[in-house]
């Protein structure tokens, strides 16, 4: 499946899914600022073009944009084909695009749930599988997967499937990091806590104690930590002191204590209806 392509210039290229806003856009700023050309992938063409103009103007980097809905399974191989056909060699893959869906699982919108899992799990896995062989062949590459601090906690009512999806991202990253030792390819999981982006409204997370009580980290702070960790070849990074403490506690035995604390923080006294998004 690997396509060998010549680099058009000596700058490395970072492909960032969900690079048009939020944490992804800040990651694009980090990679652009540190001498990378960029490939941004998201659905909204308008947001992609706006981001590309800002990044090119600020850092003089080349920015290619691909307007793709990553929940569409056929779109993943097609994106890989288009990127390689355009002669772009991806040196850094940032699997950032993700959505959430807060609310009682039993009454959740099944299509919304499946799209979330498709995006958070399947697209990340497929893009990693597609771009990794080229990196191994070249003996260098970096993959930065955006998980979440919730990946350190077992369970979490009101967003059980989102939390499970981020457990998957962290577990996949840790497994691949071991598997890839000695190949020149590093895999990193960036695990942010509550961050001030559109995700909070998109996921309906604003009603949860964790989002109401804990201070939100800025997306640029999250991106700086992610960039540094990926370049240093760290397997995991949790931005922010409080989030680091949570992650530490989440893995301490007995895990039932962390599970109880997380269950408490995931509850929402505001939610009495079946549709938590309306309550936000
Ligand atoms: N914000 C937080 O509190 C927080 C905490 C922990 C982890 N995270 C994780 O951080 C990552 C980035 O989230 P964010 O907070 O930056 O969210 P955001 O501001 O909502 O940005 C999401 C990005 O993903 C793109 N996207 C969404 N659905 C897509 C699809 N189907 N196909 C292609 N692109 C899609 C969006 O662009 P379009 O809508 O135009 O497609 C946008 O560029 C996610 O994986 C999230 O789970 C966030």
Can you tell me about this structure?
- The protein has 280 residues and is of the alpha/beta class.
- It has a single domain (13-279), classed as NAD(P)-binding Rossmann-like Domain (Rossmann fold).
- Helices cover 50% and strands 12% of the residues.
- It has 11 helices and 7 strands.
- The protein has helices at 22-33, 45-59, 73-85, 110-138, 160-179, 199-203, 209-213, 219-232, 241-250, 255-266, 276-279; strands at 13-17, 37-42, 63-67, 92-95, 141-146, 185-190, 236-237.
- A 7-stranded parallel sheet has the order 3-2-1-4-5-6-7, sandwiched between helices.
- Helix 1 runs parallel beside helix 2, helix 1 (22-33) crosses helix 8 and helix 4 packs parallel to helix 5.
- The longest helix has 29 residues, at 110-138.
- The protein binds NADP nicotinamide-adenine-dinucleotide phosphate.
Write down the overall geometry: globular
CATH class: Alpha Beta
Number of strands: 7
- The fold-level CATH name is Rossmann fold
Low-confidence segments, given as residue ranges, are 1-7, 272-280
Please give the radius of gyration in angstroms. Answer: 18 Å
Give, in spatial order, the strands making up the sheet with the most strands: 3-2-1-4-5-6-7
| Cα separation of the termini | 45 Å
Percent strand equals 5-15%
Helix content: 40-55%
Order of helices and strands: EHEHEHEHEHEHHHEHHH
Helix tally equals 11
CATH architecture classification name = 3-Layer(aba) Sandwich
Indicate the structural class.
alpha/beta
How many domains in all?
A: 1
Indicate the mean pLDDT.
Answer: 91
Largest sheet: 7 strands, parallel
């Amino acid at each position: 499946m690997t396509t060998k392509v010549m680099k058009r210039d000596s700058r490395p290229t970072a492909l960032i899914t969900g690079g048009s806003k939020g944490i992804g856009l800040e990651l694009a700023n980090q990679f652009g600022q540190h001498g990378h050309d960029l490939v941004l992938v998201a659905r909204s063409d308008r947001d992609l073009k706006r981001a590309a103009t800002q990044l090119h103007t600020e850092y003089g980097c080349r920015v290619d944009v691909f307007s793709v809905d990553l929940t569409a399974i056929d779109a993943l191989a097609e994106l890989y084909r288009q990127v390689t056909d355009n002669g772009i060699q991806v040196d850094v893959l940032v699997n950032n695009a993700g959505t959430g869906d807060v609310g009682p699982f039993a009454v959740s919108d099944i299509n919304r749930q499946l799209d979330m899992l498709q995006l958070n799990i399947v697209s990340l896995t497929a893009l990693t599988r597609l771009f990794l062989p080229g990196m191994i062949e070249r003996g260098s590459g970096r993959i930065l997967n955006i998980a979440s601090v919730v990946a350190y906690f077992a369970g979490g009512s009101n967003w059980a499937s989102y939390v499970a999806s981020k457990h998957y991202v962290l577990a996949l990253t840790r497994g691949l990091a071991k598997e890839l030792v000695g190949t020149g390819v590093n895999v990193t999981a960036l695990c942010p806590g509550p961050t001030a982006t559109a995700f909070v409204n998109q996921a309906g997370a604003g009603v949860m104690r964790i989002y109401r009580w804990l201070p939100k980290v800025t997306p640029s702070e999250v991106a700086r930590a992610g960039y540094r960790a990926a370049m240093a070849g760290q397997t995991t990074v949790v931005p922010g002191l409080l989030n680091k403490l949570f992650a530490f506690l989440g893995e301490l035995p007995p895990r039932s204590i962390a599970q109880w604390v997380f269950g408490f923080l995931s509850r929402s006294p505001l939610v009495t209806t079946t549709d938590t998004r309306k309550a936000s």
